Amino acid sequence: MPEAGVAIVGAGVAGAAAAIRLAERGVPVDLYEAVPEPRPIGAGLLLQPTGQRVLAAMGLLDEALALGTRVDRLFGDTPSGRAVLDMSYRRFHPEAYGLGIQRGALMGMLWRRLRELGVRWHCGAAAQGFEQDADGVTLRLAHREPARHAALILANGSFSRLREGMRVAQHGRPFPWGAVWTVLPAPPGFPQIELRQRFRSASQMIGLMPVGKAHAEDAERGINLFWSLPLAELDGWQERTGLDRLKQQMATLFPEVSPLLTGLRDSTQLREARYADVWMSRWHDGRVLAIGDCAHGMSPQLGQGANMALIDAHELACEAAGDWPGVFERYSRRRRAHLRFYGQASKRLTPMFQSHAVVAPWLRDRFFGWGGRLPYIHQQSIATLAGVKTGWLWGRLKL
Ligand SMILES: Cc1cc2nc3c(=O)[nH]c(=O)nc-3n(C[C@H](O)[C@H](O)[C@H](O)COP(=O)(O)OP(=O)(O)OC[C@H]3O[C@@H](n4cnc5c(N)ncnc54)[C@H](O)[C@@H]3O)c2cc1C
């Protein structure tokens, strides 16, 4: 076990999971979260077999399976019926599946485990900056005394400004597209086993994913609705487009969504999502480490962000022995191939799904639609989705 305690900034998936895994190993943890009263909210997530392994190691997988919904297949097509994506987890492994889960349900489980482990959790504590020296790190907090810790883990999301305090080459570029999303009650008979997408080129995209219950007492199982929008249209969409026109656009692109849309009555039900591509030459700087979206934010098209955050937490705890700079350096080395592969894959593949490009979606239709019928290409595509790849040609993550 490393000397003295660690501060973690951000109680999202990455920060909460890292706090749990380190506390399980006996590391004293202080978790600082800017929001005064965090509530279990957020978009529906598809957790891959790798992320599920981490939940199993925390003893939370059975509960997650009861709350969420098994997703066996991803299917996407165009209005003319041309299949663009058709991937089945079973072809990756006979017992593999994705787990559609509401972020709120996942956070509820993680936060409960934090409390059970006695992690000191400081809410309404926004970190503003830090200084490190040979013995530790001083964390500056808004409206509070500075806090001194042996090490600092930054897990405060893609738009972190704290990351800039790390002496590491880096960039965080806002992605030119975002989305509106909501979770709606599944109408009777609505398909509950596949993630369904419909594309018009790459400029229009609707995604539907079963995500189960918000909490154990919830009687309804939900469907996550995702509608892609360029940032210029996302800003002020209520005034410019309005809910009725947006619903009309959704139903025109994908008429089967109509029964679900009866549950969408108010524009406040739709939440906006913006994301950023974050790149760092390494993820550690002495006694400071970046994890989760803060370290490697990417678009949600590959369904990997929360998954990666869970893996980061798990791999960090595996290295948590000895002095902190050594722990963080070993962690960076251990995560390198996996994070590099998914960073590159996200950069190359996202324009095929969210852009005004012409060539990229054309290639997508040929590669995933036609090429996807070839066993090798299907295998590589589903292994990428499952979150296990560490290189374009070979290399598998061992958890
Ligand atoms: C629409 C959408 C769909 C997605 N779908 C999927 C999917 O299917 N599968 C998947 O794996 N991932 C998906 N993701 C990505 C996933 O949600 C993120 O990758 C994941 O939640 C990142 O977790 P995080 O803990 O790194 O960051 P965040 O969840 O952003 O958490 C950061 C935390 O830090 C806190 N914070 C920020 N600044 C400070 C500060 N200065 N001081 C203290 N606290 C601070 C914030 O309040 C927040 O609680 C999706 C994302 C979106 C937007």
User: Hetero groups bound?
Assistant: flavin-adenine dinucleotide
Q: What's the total number of strands?
A: 19
Q: Please give the alpha-carbon distance between the first and last residues.
A: 20 Å
**SS strand fraction:** 25-35%
**What integer value in Å does the Rg equal?**
21 Å
- Spatial arrangement of strands, main beta sheet: 6-5-14-15-16-13-17
Which architecture of the largest domain per CATH?
3-Layer(bba) Sandwich
Spell out the CATH superfamily of the largest domain.
FAD/NAD(P)-binding domain
Query: So what's the overall shape?
Result: globular
Mean pLDDT: 93
> What class, by secondary structure content?
alpha/beta
Number of domains: 2
DSSP helix count?
13
CATH class of the largest domain: Alpha Beta
Query: What's the CATH topology label of the largest domain?
Result: FAD/NAD(P)-binding domain
Can you summarize the main beta sheet?
7 strands, mixed
**Poorly predicted parts:** none
Q: Which bin fits the share of residues in helices?
A: 25-40%
Explain the overall architecture.
This protein is of the alpha/beta class. The protein has 13 helices and 19 strands. It folds into 2 domains: 251 residues, 3-Layer(bba) Sandwich (FAD/NAD(P)-binding domain); 100 residues. It has a 7-stranded mixed sheet with strand order 6-5-14-15-16-13-17. A 6-stranded mixed sheet has the order 8-2-1-12-19-18, covered by helices on one side. Helix 1 runs parallel beside helix 4, helix 2 packs across helix 10 and helix 10 packs antiparallel against helix 11. The protein is globular. The mean pLDDT is 93. Bound molecules: flavin-adenine dinucleotide. The site of flavin-adenine dinucleotide has 33 residues, from helix 1, strand 2, strand 3, strand 13 and strand 17.
